[in-house]
Design brief:
homodimer, 311 residues, seven-stranded mixed β-sheet, alpha/beta, 2 domains, Metallo-beta-lactamase, Chain A
């Protein structure tokens, strides 16, 4: 089960209702954080995300609205006594940015934070998820991220478990969650023995800031969820190319072309504060579109079924 | 008339009710801004402070909770098309901090911002106010600021104006505001000819972060308002010296020793979120104490009379 929590959904400038961009993936006591908009430390608190979780941070590109919340988060963690290290991934300039912040404004030192300069390709893997970066077309070097759940498990089949003599109880739960178990007689049971054919891996894509591009189309192919920027409505489509952004119609067209299941639009301009024009225009192309809201949560189960919870 | 607007009154970490430290002095279309806590750009908007005001910024010291709102403010001003230059004053490291932020996270370039490294002494003067910095005792180099209204004008005396043949109307207003006027016959009238003896200049002091020290006592001598940090209650007074902060009792003692008129306490720890213990302990020493609240405004007229407006 993965929770995707929208900590900030604003565009360029924060408003009363929308913080600047940040998205948390929460699963099994672990957090992956994509972008760090200003005032993130307060959003983390509001979302109930704990201090000492295992955590990795991914920055899409070096524009202030995507990064200004990072130093405050490091400060808060230090003031509260975080001790677990924190890895941060992003464009090359991120290394100097974090270093100078640490050197000049006293971010504290209760934990180690290491910044990695990354390129397109696989950048992170743990027991549950793989993160692949891909280069998008914004102003300057910019990345999107593809997040893949790597342990898909088929539907649990109780009759098969009974046939193999596995007692009903915790072992069934573990097998159903994709874990191997050992019976009292030493027999090792692999989950594949008691589950149906595995579904496709869950795939979620975050566009970062970009023009429509093949890298985003390819990364999004058959994705369960595409989380995409949609800075402009069609009325201001002339602004999208020079500013390196998309209209909501362009984002919806990618969702359609890439055959995604759900399109979630975020990072639209403050000029459309209620977002209705952004949502309506996208829906005319790709009906299964929703607008991200601050502190909205999408819970995705291992079969890719999702539930949307707004505050 | 000077408006002192508390844009952030929090301590170390922002909370639901309190942004990180920032205080605006607003007068005659001009803004002086002291410290820049995170999310300042949204507080500026909430306080109704305009984009293209003449503005100078003063940073007390290089700790993240006093400075993280500065890059976002520069970004916002640039996105909205500010064109007036902006001078920023503070410790020497501020120069590198702003430079690296500008170089790495695309803060925009619609206006010029120049950073000045300052020491104790006079640092700023315009037609209305003088700002003097003084060095305080925190962890590392830290400044407090003394803000002085430099054109005190006595009470306007209508009978004197009549004697000199000045027609009742706009000229009376200008003289009353301390401006020279020229009559139709070419006679120049100085405000001193039609006003009573000038009162003492209005003096407002901002402590920054500090232990009790003579520099703060001296700067605050007979001040109208002392705006002071009060990080701890007496229960946690043992934390004040190692962390370079004051208890509210220490702040109140300075207010008493320096014979200030009003003591405004700010930047107290989130552990006393409602602030009552901070306020009560200070009042036991110095009764004319209030707690600063976010977006609270103190309006001070030219005679030093003040009015407090909370939202």
């Amino acid at each position: 089960m993965i929770d995707v929590i929208f900590l900030g959904t604003g565009g360029s400038m924060p408003t009363e209702g929308r913080n600047l961009p940040s998205i948390a993936f929460q699963y099994e006591g672990q957090i992956l954080l994509f972008d760090c908009g200003e005032d993130l430390q307060r959003q983390i608190e509001r979302a109930g995300i704990g201090l000492n979780k295992r955590m990795a941070i991914f920055i899409s590109h070096m524009h202030a609205d995507h990064i200004l919340g990072l130093p405050g988060l490091l400060l808060r963690f230090s003031l509260l006594g975080r001790f677990k290290p924190l890895n941060i991934y992003g464009p090359p300039e991120l290394i100097e940015y974090v270093k100078v912040n640490q050197a000049t404004i006293n971010l504290g030192t209760t934990f180690e934070s290491i910044v990695y300069s990354i390129e397109a390709g696989p950048v992170y893997e743990d027991h549950e998820l793989i993160v692949n970066a891909f280069e998008v077309e914004h102003r300057g070097y910019a990345l999107g991220y593809q997040i893949i759940h790597k342990r898909p498990t088929g539907v649990f089949l109780p009759e098969k478990a009974k046939e193999l003599g596995i007692p009903q109880g915790p072992l069934w739960g573990k097998l159903s969650d994709g874990e191997r178990v050992v019976l009292d007689d030493g027999t090792v049971i692999d989950p594949s023995q008691v589950t149906g054919p595995p579904p496709n891996p869950i795939k979620i894509v975050y566009s970062g800031d970009t023009r429509p591009c093949d890298a985003l189309r390819n990364a999004s192919k058959d994705a369960n969820i595409l989380i995409s920027e949609a800075m402009f409505s069609s009325e201001h489509s002339h602004l999208a190319p020079p500013r390196g952004h998309m209209t909501s119609i362009e984002a919806a067209t990618i969702a359609l072309e890439s055959n995604v299941d759900l399109l979630v639009l975020t990072h639209y301009s403050p000029r459309y504060e209620d977002g209705s024009v952004i949502e309506e225009e996208a829906k005319s192309i790709f009906p299964n579109t929703i607008l991200a809201r601050d502190l909205m949560r999408i819970t995705i189960d291992k079969n890719g079924r999702y539930k949307i919870i707004t505050q």
